[in-house]
Design goal:
- The complex is a heterodimer.
- By secondary structure, chain A is an alpha+beta fold.
- Chain A has helices at about 70-85, 115-130, 165-185, and strands at about 1-5, 10-15, 20, 25-30, 35-40, 45-50, 95-100, 135-140, 145-150, 155-160, 190.
- Chain A has a 5-stranded mixed β-sheet, with no helix packed on it. In chain A, strands 3-6-5-7-8 form a 5-stranded mixed β-sheet.
- Chain A is globular.
- The mean pLDDT of chain A is about 85.
- Helices cover about 45% and strands about 20% of the residues of chain B.
- Chain B has 5 helices and 5 strands, in the order βαβαβαβαβα.
- Chain B has helices at about 10-25, 35-45, 60-70, 90-95, 110-120; strands at about 5-10, 30, 50, 80-85, 100-105.
- In chain B, β4, α4 (about 90-95) and β5 (about 100-105) form a beta-alpha-beta unit.
- The mean pLDDT of chain B is about 95.
- Classes of the chains: A alpha+beta, B alpha/beta.
- The interface between A and B is medium-sized, with 31 and 31 residues.
Chain lengths: ~190, ~120
């Protein structure tokens, strides 16, 4: 972890597909385009965590909440939730903040789907189903977001950024393609 | 009428999506939100297979597996663990507890059904 001079705290950066949670006085940061980041916090511990994910493209006309791609979103959320539980948090005490889903990505394949809208729709539906209250959100639009999350206090600082759209779009593209491959090879079962 | 399967998972979203896939393949599905509820369900309902998560409140999945292995009448019930945990040591722990198989999320529809068919042909 490097030191963030502005906040005078260690900073953990997370990229697409990552998640991180901590009980320490640090800052977790990320840069978002079409992807979604959810921060979850249990103030009783206190512990907080953030992820950074996107749904893979759906196959055909699957139900958005039950599709294979939604399962990836559920998985991204479950990985973060389980990590917070390992730090002593309780699922029923978690509160969320939601960011991202802007129309930054420029994919050849994206023409058929509204990726950012799909991501936003998924996460709102998921948090509602799991009964996790949402304290604040900033989603949609067309600008990338830089998000700083303080896991001890649940405080979030967010700003829009113009500078990195192109590189960000390219990185999210690569992530999207990686997800398509992962979807095809997922979940190899073991029988004892 | 297909076999009956109990899904034990604290996430409503996971239960919904597994139920959807199983019902599409003709199975009858029962649900429980944690290990304790799972055991209670098993004492009331006869199922041919249990699919369970590990990290759950009240009673975790591996404790439930151990309890099932100690209970007459359901001792030999096949149990597939469906989890985000992929670490070798945790998988080993599952094997020791008495799980029949291990599937790491996010799972693939076809592979899940294939595995179920291997366990309860």
């Amino acid at each position: 972890m490097r030191l963030n001079w502005q906040f005078q705290k260690p900073e953990q950066y997370i990229g697409p597909g990552d998640f991180f949670s901590s009980t320490d006085d640090i800052v977790i940061s990320t840069l978002l385009g079409s992807c979604i980041s959810v921060t979850l916090h249990d103030r009783a511990v206190p512990v907080g965590g953030m992820n950074h994910f996107m749904l893979p493209f759906p196959k055909g006309t699957e139900d958005p909440q039950l599709s294979t791609s939604a399962r990836y979103g559920v998985n991204a959320m479950e990985l973060l939730i389980n990590d917070i539980l390992k730090h002593g948090g309780q699922k029923k005490k978690l509160r969320a903040k939601v960011f991202g889903g802007s129309a930054v990505i420029n994919l050849d394949k994206a023409a058929t789907y509204d990726i950012p809208a799909m991501n936003i729709e998924f996460i709102i539906g998921f948090l509602e189903t799991e009964k996790i209250p949402v304290d604040s959100f900033s989603v949609g639009g067309s600008l990338p977001r830089k998000v700083y999350f303080f896991p001890k206090s649940a405080r979030v600082l967010m700003r829009y950024t113009h500078s990195s759209s192109f590189a960000l779009s390219r990185r999210e593209n690569q992530y999207a393609h990686r997800l398509v491959e992962e979807t095809a090879n997922a979940g190899k079962p073991i029988l004892f | 009428m297909g076999a009956s399967i109990l899904i034990v998972d604290d996430s409503v979203s996971i239960r919904q999506s597994v139920r959807f896939i199983l019902e599409q393949s003709g199975y009858t599905v029962f649900e429980a939100a944690d290990g304790l509820e799972g055991l209670k369900r098993l004492s009331e309902t006869k199922v041919q297979l249990v699919i369970s998560d590990i990290n759950m409140p009240n009673m975790d999945g591996l404790t439930m597996v151990k309890k099932i292995r100690e209970t007459d009448g359901i001792k030999f019930l096949p149990i597939l663990v469906l989890t985000t945990e992929s670490q070798g040591s945790v998988v080993e722990e599952g094997k020791k507890a008495g799980a029949t198989g291990w599937i790491v999320k996010p799972f693939n529809n076809e592979k899940l059904i294939e595995t179920i068919k291997k366990v309860i042909p």
